[in-house]
Amino acid sequence: MRKVNLSIKLKNRLNELDKIKAAVSKMSATTDCTQRNSKEINLILEELFTNVVHHGFNDDKEHDIDLSISCDEKSLIIRMEDDGKPFDVTAAAAPDTKCPIEKRCAGGLGIHFVKHFIDDCKYFRKKSKNIVVLKKDMIDDEQIEINSESKLES
Predict the structure, then answer these.
(1) How far, CA to CA in Å, does 48 sit from each of 45, 79, 150?
(2) What pLDDT digit, counting tens, does each position of 16-52 carry?
(3) For residues 68 and 46, what is the distance between their CA atoms, to the nearest angstrom?
(4) Phi and psi of 93, rounded to 5°?
């Protein structure tokens, strides 16, 4: 697998999701990214970006959101930077997924998915910017099956 580095400057508009999907598609085609990993990466980026667009700004002005993706055979690193309101994704409370849907508080499920599909998450606030850095270990479907079988035998 080749190392891939992509950088995209996005605006805080939902139609920019198409650029994110195109970047993930390009990365997946260039690397040996499995279909499963590709879908998880799309979900992670869609949730993070959508949260920034919907909740990150107190105005209707156009803001830049910088996204970089770096991927090799071992890991994927996602870095998203925006000038929105401070929001530490690592400190976001997990939703009560055991509570019936009709009794749950709104929100939090997207961040829950992000945390579920990544292996490491860091948040920084520098020069009035939110910086989120996510790491996902890239394992193929065969390794998932081997790991699952090992757990069953234990």
Answers:
(1) 5, 11, 33
(2) 999 999 998 888 888 777 888 888 889 899 989 999 9
(3) 14
(4) -70, 140
DSSP code of 93? P
Q: Which helix (H) or strand (E) holds 128?
A: none
Could you tell me the domains of the chain?
A: 4-153 (3.30.565.10)
Centroid of chain to Cα 119: 11
Joined tokens for residue 35: 């279909």
Name the CA radius of gyration of the chain, rounded.
Answer: 17
Is residue 6 a contact partner of residue 26, using CB atoms and an 8 Å limit?
A: yes
What's the half-sphere exposure (Cβ side, CA atoms, 13 Å) at 121?
16
Q: What is the model's pLDDT at position 8?
A: 94
Percent of the chain surpassing pLDDT 70: 75
Q: Does pTM surpass 0.90?
A: no
pLDDT digits (tens, 9 = 90+) for 67-122: 999 988 788 899 999 999 999 888 776 655 666 666 655 555 567 677 778 899 99
Written as six digits, the tokens of 20 are 């994110």
Q: Which tokens sit at 25? A: 């598609």
The structure tokens 């309101």 sit at: 85
Q: In this structure, what are the phi and psi dihedrals at residue 57, rounded to the nearest 5 degrees?
A: -130, 145
